[in-house]
Amino acid sequence: MPGTADNRGAAVRGTVHPTVAVLERHLSLYRRLWHASVLSSFVLPVLFLLSIGVGVGAYVGSVQGVGYLSWIVPGVLASTAFQIALGESTYSVLGDFKWVRSYHGMRATPVRPVDMVLGHQLYLIFRVEAAVAAFLVVVLFFGGLQSPWALATPLVCALLTVATSAPVVAFSASIDHDSYFALLFRFVLIPSTLFAGVFFPVEQLPGLVRPLAYVSPLWHGVELCRAATLGRSPAWPLVVHLGYLVAWAAAGLVLAVRAFHRRLED
Amino acid sequence: MAEHPLIFARGLVKRFGDFTAVGGIDLDVAPGEAFGFLGPNGAGKSSTMRMIGCVSTPTAGELRILGMDPVRDGAQIRARLGVCPQLDNLDPDLTVRENLTTYARYFGLSRAESRRRADELLEFVQLADRAGGKVEPLSGGMKRRLTIARAMVNDPDIVLLDEPTTGLDPQARHLLWERLFRLKQRGVTLVLTTHYMDEAEQLCDRLVVMDGGRIVAQGSPRALIESYSTPEVLELRFSDGLDSGAGYAAKLDGVGERVDPLPDRVLVYVNNGDVALSEVHRRGLTPSSALVRRSTLEDVFLHLTGRTLVD
Amino acid sequence: MMTTFVAARVSPGRVGAVVGRNVGALRSGPAYWLVLLSGFFEPLLYLLSIGLGVGVLVGNLAVGGRTMAYATFVAPAMLAVSAMSGALSETTFNFFFKLKYMKTFEAVLATPVRPIEIAFGELIWAVVRGSLYTAIFLVIMVVLGLTSAGWALVAFPATVLIGLAFGAAGMAISTMMRGWQDFDLLTTGQFALFLFSGTFSPVRDYPVGLELLVQVTPLYHAVELVRALCLGVVESALLGHVAYLVVMAVAGLWFAARRMERKLCV
């Protein structure tokens, strides 16, 4: 009970890192709410693949030397990661500041803003990897994987997750009104998904808008995933793609931690 | 530890832009004490609490919590604090018990220890039967008790309670006070803010009265009443009330030590209420109601600031 | 639209309240009008990405004895989807919120207004919103040469009918919703319709079982109707599609009004 002398020290001596404690909180919530996202995380990517990859693919001979299905599998894979990462960094982050105030609750404990941000990122990586693993198993049966390098896609997706999510978390922690999210989805998420090389090569885009695809972290994720599942080298040198994603991730994390500090200060 | 106060502040200031929320206050809170900040909304109580809770940086002045600097050692200090905020921030999608175990993990407690603490504390705040249920359906009083249990999960040296019973019905308040009194008996240091004088009188060994970001008086509830008020107060209401306040104040002059005309009634500060009431009748005044009561901190506050605590 | 919901995966209990506020806040939020006006944006992006982008890979398509560019095939489907989602977003998300949380209708019903009249009013607003999107979309189709101005004028009333049918059905579904968690099911269902209603490839390509199943679902009829009109094909089979949509509108409206009566007038 409160105040017994023997356990007074035990509470202070840490047996779990605060970042992990934050991850655990998200996992506890997920255990209660997983069913709400099971369709969108696991079923929709496969439906998408069937409709476009198989349905439309029947009319597309081959793209860049491979069948259309094999060509868009890595694209749908990366865009699934992208959508989960982006979607789970919006309402829930703002809500935890504004309505649930759980970050304020954490702030009263030894948990630091950096723990809050990193714990959330770890949770997102878990969410993305679960969806990626399920998707890979399904497409394996469809013969959508051409190379054992496909085993590297979960790593690419983890990097893409942080590169996408961290800047969005920084944004969500800085705004006060959730109607911006509708705009974020409409003007960032959907255009990226549709024009960043998921469904057709970006070389087909008019020269004016093509740089927009190159700016999107998703295109770099798609290129890396595609290189892996097809067992060939990506469009640009490997280090450039990786470096670009790392840069987004690093800048996003710095901004996110700063935004958390600012929001929780006064 | 004995010579070091748990909380030590000198000239503590908090400004938000041009607005000064806390305008230079001194504090000493000793171990085992129940210490209160009494004052109306906007007096600077919550800002002070947030600085003590190491979530808000002082603009100026000196502040030491548990002998440490809240700016440099914030995380270390927070590890030894329990905080019950004014706005509930329980996780509505976790169960009652998970709210405690999750929070315990933020303090680094092992899983087994977290579960043990959660069960003990649920027992203590009389929510053991709701352990597996959701937070959402709990009443306001239950949620507040759960928040207090959560604040206790790390076995803190100091528990900070910001307006612990605001918004609760009388029965829930009394139940909560009773639990807090138990904590006090166990030697837990309580620091609380309130704008209810009955709460301050019930719980606090010592308190400071704040107004406009400054401390206007401090001491035990009894000592404050003795210094700033009389033992009893006679409250008179007049039904003809044309100019009830000021007009009667003149007619009541000399009945007590002091007369305070309020819009709806007149307060007469006296040593003996019954004697004073006879004097009122003797002067030929016929109040529609007359009430003799003991002085409270409300009277202290009224005397110090010329305003009532709750409007 | 669909992808937006998929990404903005909202976890029920906790975010239920949050979402509730979203919808309410959306109306007053800084970006509300931008969100509202840009509603036609998503089908348009799909048209550009899949219709034009993937269309380059597909080349021409032979359907019903006619050969057409893939974009010409996809565009009417996106038009039908635009009519559907414009009406549904108003009669599911917003309508449910008003029904359940804002108690708007209870206040209205304290006046002489009858439930069927409320249902009508809501439906008209939804159809106006949906029709705004389809009108803009038709203009774009004409500009891109995907249909003629004359046939666009003929197709427009058909999109209004589609809006009525889906709007009414959306309202009927809303009255049966238990909570926000059911929206995952609804949006997944909506997304499945979007993918498999002869939208991206002709239904005759589907496996027989799926083909029969699709022919029972509403978006299929909507797509077939506007595709024929946009292509300038008028045949008696269109009456069947019209009849389906009319029945859907009337039944949905009747059902919604009855449920509202039972829910609100106790």
Supply the CATH class of the largest domain in chain B. Answer: Alpha Beta
Spell out the helices and strands of chain C N to C.
HHHHEEHHHHHHHH
**Biggest sheet overview of chain B:** 6 strands, mixed
Quaternary state of this entry equals heterotrimer
Radius of gyration of chain C: 19 Å
Helical content of chain B (DSSP H or I, runs of 4+): 25-40%
Mean pLDDT of chain C: 83
Largest interface: A-C, 55 and 56 residues
The CATH homologous superfamily name of the largest domain in chain B equals: P-loop containing nucleotide triphosphate hydrolases
Order of helices and strands of chain B: EEEHEHEHHHEHEHEEHEHEEHEH
Give the amount of beta strand of chain B, in percent: 25-35%
What would the CATH topology of the largest domain in chain B be?
A: Rossmann fold
Please outline the helices and strands.
The complex is a heterotrimer of chains A (266), B (311) and C (266).
Chain A: H1 18-33, H2 35-55, E1 62-63, E2 66-67, H3 68-87, H4 91-98, H5 102-107, H6 113-141, H7 153-174, H8 179-195, H9 210-215, H10 217-230, H11 238-265
Antiparallel strand pairs in A: 1-2
Chain B: E1 7-16, E2 19-29, E3 34-38, H1 45-52, E4 60-65, H2 74-78, E5 81-84, H3 96-106, H4 111-124, H5 140-151, E6 158-162, H6 170-185, E7 189-194, H7 197-203, E8 206-211, E9 214-219, H8 221-228, E10 232-237, H9 244-251, E11 258-261, E12 266-270, H10 273-282, E13 289-294, H11 297-305
Parallel strand pairs in B: 3-7, 3-8, 5-6, 6-7
Antiparallel strand pairs in B: 1-2, 1-4, 8-9, 10-12, 10-13, 11-12
Helix pairs in contact in B: 3-4, 5-6, 8-11
Chain C: H1 2-7, H2 12-28, H3 32-37, H4 41-58, E1 60-63, E2 66-69, H5 70-102, H6 104-109, H7 115-143, H8 149-176, H9 181-195, H10 208-216, H11 218-231, H12 237-264
Helix pairs in contact in C: 4-5, 5-7, 5-8, 5-11, 7-8, 7-12, 8-11, 8-12, 11-12
